[in-house]
Amino acid sequence: MDWWLLVTAGVVGGILNSVAGGGSFITFPALMFVGVPPIGANATNTFAVSAGYVSGAYGFRRDIARQPQVVLPIVLLSLIGGALGAYLLINIPEQLFTQVIPWLLLFATVLFVAGERLSERLANLQGAQLLLALMLVLVCTYGGFFNAGLGIIVLSYLVVAKYTDINQMNGLKLLVSSCVSLSAIIIFIWQDAIAWLPGIAVLVGSVIGGYLAARVSRKVNPQYIRHFVTLSSVFMTVYFFIDAYHV
Description:
The protein is an all-alpha fold. It has one domain (9-33, 42-245). 83% of the residues lie in helices and 0% in strands. The model has no long low-confidence stretch (mean pLDDT 83).
């Protein structure tokens, strides 16, 4: 039953990550549900959903290639940020991370719900390229530290950076997420932080979900996906607040 749960969570998570973001609201709790400790579950989740990011980015490869001059800087900054975030995660005490989880989920949930309005305001500011580069590194550091909500935050960043085509934005979001995850995974492997068998189960589902979503995302009503992600993220946030603080 655990394996079917993890594979199913991976499929759903892969679909959500490719279409709207927020797949880790499903996969991260699933890993903890089957007994993986919090920091290990976070590291394992990063490993597991990375395949969905990569397969999804491949599905959007033509959209990504429309601005080839931005690809290399985005890749380099994403790799740096992902490694920094993973290093921070490995060096935080388990108990402290357990207490931080609900706050990170709350931050990602609020950003998902109100992110478009926030992004519209930020997009009106005249930001220098250096500021945008710093913002991307900070976004990717968050992703290396805690993968849940990464896609949502990257999409918000892309709005600030004045991208408007949703398919290109989804492609770049998946490219950033792939690079963040891959650099973080190197740190996690070095520290032996990944639970491999549960991670592989989620990874298999994530590959299937990510690629399927990239193929059909243009036919899916985004509002349905947003509603599902919002409800699931609110539920998971409340659950982890109760679990961490016994309220």
